[in-house]
Input
Amino acid sequence: MKRYRIAVLVSGTGRHLENLAELSKDPRADFPVDVVLAISNRPGVQALERAERCGVPASVIAPEPDETDEAYGARVFDVIREANVDAVVLAGFLKKLWIPDDHKGRVINIHPSLLPAFGGKGFYGGRVHRAVLERGCQVTGCTVHLVDEIYDNGPILLQRWCPVEPGDTAETLARRVFEEELLALPIGVLSFLEKQ
Ligand SMILES: Nc1nc2c(c(=O)[nH]1)N[C@@H](CN(C=O)c1ccc(C(=O)N[C@@H](CCC(=O)O)C(=O)O)cc1)CN2
Ligand SMILES: NCC(=O)N[C@@H]1O[C@H](COP(=O)([O-])[O-])[C@@H](O)[C@H]1O
Output
């Protein structure tokens, strides 16, 4: 069976990176996807320790002071190009990513809300769940989507929803949404790869 190659970009805890890497090694998971490279824009984050534990080669590519998004993205994709990947997955990557022409339409992001609600600049991590609670939403969820030049704007590949329960805090809601994210991202990534 064909195996696909992905790079995963991270900024923080790296639970998605670990989940994707573990699924790829589990013969019962039916997930023929190898995580061949992880890139963090921040040094010293937990995601780098998880990459090492999972045997995923990892690099830190931190933005230089005053570096433009385009110059930063060009450096990131120079490294990605060497790894010859089928797709790039942003999993908790918190920086705007400029995408060169040869990778347009091949970059996937997971976002912890039902886009287009609660997306865009400033909406990441706990901020999303706090906004969902403040607005009084009764359902929320996560979105796997293709990335374009605008935050959280590209075509949607997959969404999964869950209820907002009475008494939820941003933390309890984040946990419930994350359970859905763990299912959504591998399914979204594999179904995208199989259609290429
Ligand atoms: N070109 C794109 N780049 C990125 C996208 C995207 O859709 N298109 N998605 C993000 C991930 N994301 C939500 O899914 C997201 C991440 C971060 C922010 C944000 O407001 N960031 C802050 C900085 C935060 C920090 O460094 O701590 C900011 O830009 O001021 C919004 C959305 C990944 N990249
Ligand atoms: N807008 C982007 C965003 O908020 N992404 C979110 O960051 C978390 C990363 O977790 P992880 O680093 O432990 O995989 C995930 O919940 C992901 O949806």
